[in-house]
Amino acid sequence: MATHKLLLLPGDGIGPEVMREVEKIVGWFRKRGVGFETETDLVGGSAYDAHGAAISEAAMERAQAADAVLFGAVGGSKWDSVPYAVRPEAGLLRLRKDLGLFANLRPAICYPALADASSLKREVVEGLDIMIVRELTGGVYFGEPKEIVTLEDGSQRAVDTQLYHTHEVERIARVAFDLAGKRRNKVSSAEKFNVMKTGVFWRQVVTRIHKAEFSDVELEHVLADNCAMQLVRNPKQFDVIVTDNLFGDILSDIAAMLTGSLGMLPSASLGAEDPATGQRKALYEPVHGSAPDIAGKGLANPIAMIGSFGMALRYSFGLLDEADRLDKAIANVLTSGTRTKDIAGPGMNAVGTQDVGDAIVKEL
Amino acid sequence: MATHKLLLLPGDGIGPEVMREVEKIVGWFRKRGVGFETETDLVGGSAYDAHGAAISEAAMERAQAADAVLFGAVGGSKWDSVPYAVRPEAGLLRLRKDLGLFANLRPAICYPALADASSLKREVVEGLDIMIVRELTGGVYFGEPKEIVTLEDGSQRAVDTQLYHTHEVERIARVAFDLAGKRRNKVSSAEKFNVMKTGVFWRQVVTRIHKAEFSDVELEHVLADNCAMQLVRNPKQFDVIVTDNLFGDILSDIAAMLTGSLGMLPSASLGAEDPATGQRKALYEPVHGSAPDIAGKGLANPIAMIGSFGMALRYSFGLLDEADRLDKAIANVLTSGTRTKDIAGPGMNAVGTQDVGDAIVKEL
Ligand SMILES: CC(C)[C@H](C(=O)O)[C@@H](O)C(=O)O
Ligand SMILES: CC(C)[C@H](C(=O)O)[C@@H](O)C(=O)O
């Protein structure tokens, strides 16, 4: 059987403790004969503390050589004043950019057992299942110029550049239409074409790809501000939402928060398929952040991180049976009431990070 | 008594029908001796249909000469394919820019009588009262370059420029701190300093103004994506949120939608105070849009538009008693159950746009 190379980058805050639970799951599959080879390295603030950079060159080489990267979380106020170029987030941004991970898939699913944890009314979110497809290597995150300049009179000017090329919009549109075809067949494309030229452009390219290649999928265009509103008002109207890097950052966070299951949501960041090998670079990470306030206390919910490994099984290794098996184990553990504090219902006894990991292994 | 010059720009969609109700209110105050002089002109799609521009030069001159502009709403799919420079929104953007209306105040208030109309749980939104202070004349809305360029190989590149100068951030920060001092004394400043240089800059300038001039106000910095999440999770943690033009567009729409009272929310866009006269240019508009789907049917809720006139009484004309009187009349009409469909409770008889206007006049 082929060996799958996994690079584990636990990062900062609760990253290491949720990654430890994933290692248990990897160990379980390995014992059952699935070939996994793992390496571990630093990223984010912990890499800065060790090397003075948010990710070392050696770690970048390992990431390039891996079949998939599992990423925990980065950042924390401890590093709020380190130089911009080496801030914790720079490690994640470099991974995305250098591995060419242009397609960020963020499912927002409301688990029926957890619907009451949402701040929204049960009937608004129960059964919610939407997929945000966020462009991840372009836009205002990477466009140049990106600088703060001091002017002659001593005042300053800061600039970021929102930039998109035809092929960048084309390929992310294809990912969205393709996914929609396997779901409820509807794509909502979000931009601000009424104030941004990149919005006008985005709409044109998405419309063209739709007409030429996916006319059987329903397409609607929605303004990003209205999309945010509609997510709050009636999120179940959406199936797949495709949008740019910055709008995607915000809209996917809203969608995640609606579900009441933030500690449950995984994500996948995928590169282009190599036409020769059919392989694509990939990084999997939980939607939640590093949560420094609860780090090291064993309170963190490891399910988003474990679910991210599940997405790796599915999207990177084609191990669909194994992925299904893992998803089922997670669902059973949830139903049994073994839950961390963030999702424990009223009157339920919350358990620790490790207990959830152990319970999932046991279910497997 | 001084005469206050009002320019009415009803615009498109439901704009004209909600503006008609404001005219009744203006008429009532005029009869009681408050000096109002009104003119009406076109803006948006209706201006385009008449003049081929989203606002005529004559209307711009009237706006410059007015003490306050009352603005309805613009846009509709009818004009989706007019040239970019003359699209309906261009009229609103030109008004904001040419009148120097840099400070957009968007209160998000959840009226107890309407809390059940929210998609959020009652306890999450009941009593909500936050103020979004959005920078309105800078950022990615106006920065250059802003263009779509065709490259040699036939592909295209689109660009928008997110740009801020020191004085732009300073003055909006002052507005926010100043307002917070009259409220619950807390400002949350939202940006993406972890990926944007304008975010780094925004945070620096806001911090400096806070230290130098408003150290008695509580200040917190929050990432824009996290701010969106927190608005959904627990909006009552906020008092005043200050943010840039694009984040403000999205965050204020989320905040408005939380309240369940979108048809109720007014907004004010203010310029700098003239040091000589103490006057400032101002435009008042409802938070809701042109809602083409219900336009012309007498279904629109006129309260956001009437409340916008109330903000004009307060912020432009210093007519505080009159503003209070109007607010009370609106509240009484709401309590009496005279409501349009969007806010009618279960089992309530919804009334039309005009009925609400008439009822408010009667209450006055
Ligand atoms: C950590 C940060 C750089 C990142 C982003 O802004 O993309 C995060 O918010 C995310 O959504 O993955
Ligand atoms: C109509 C449009 C140009 C406008 C904006 O994007 O600013 C609107 O969404 C708003 O928030 O006032």
UniProtKB/TrEMBL annotation, chains A, B:
EC assignment: 1.1.1.85
The Isopropylmalate dehydrogenase-like domain, residue ranges: 5-360
Oxidoreductase recorded as keyword: yes
InterPro entries found in the cross-reference section: IsoCit/isopropylmalate_DH_CS, IsoPropMal-DH-like_dom, Isopropylmalate_DH
Annotated localization: Cytoplasm
GO molecular function ontology, one term from the record: magnesium ion binding
Binding positions for NAD(+) per the UniProt entry: 76-89, 289-301
TM region positions: none
Binding site for substrate: R96, R106, R134, D225
Pathways per UniProt: Amino-acid biosynthesis; L-leucine biosynthesis; L-leucine from 3-methyl-2-oxobutanoate: step 3/4
Note on how the cofactor is bound: Binds 1 Mg(2+) or Mn(2+) ion per subunit.
Keyword Iron-sulfur: no
Keywords: Amino-acid biosynthesis, Branched-chain amino acid biosynthesis, Cytoplasm, Leucine biosynthesis, Magnesium, Manganese, Metal-binding, NAD, Oxidoreductase
Top-rank lineage group of the source organism: Bacteria
Catalytic activity: (2R,3S)-3-isopropylmalate + NAD(+) = 4-methyl-2-oxopentanoate + CO2 + NADH
GO cellular component annotations of the record: cytosol
Any single Pfam family the record assigns to this protein: Iso_dh
Cofactor(s) the record lists: Mg(2+); Mn(2+)
Main enzyme class: oxidoreductase
Function of the molecule: Catalyzes the oxidation of 3-carboxy-2-hydroxy-4-methylpentanoate (3-isopropylmalate) to 3-carboxy-4-methyl-2-oxopentanoate. The product decarboxylates to 4-methyl-2 oxopentanoate.
Description of how the protein assembles with itself and partners: Homodimer.
Family note: Belongs to the isocitrate and isopropylmalate dehydrogenases family. LeuB type 1 subfamily.
Matches recorded under NCBIfam families: leuB
Protein's UniProt name: 3-isopropylmalate dehydrogenase
Organism, as annotated: Microvirga tunisiensis
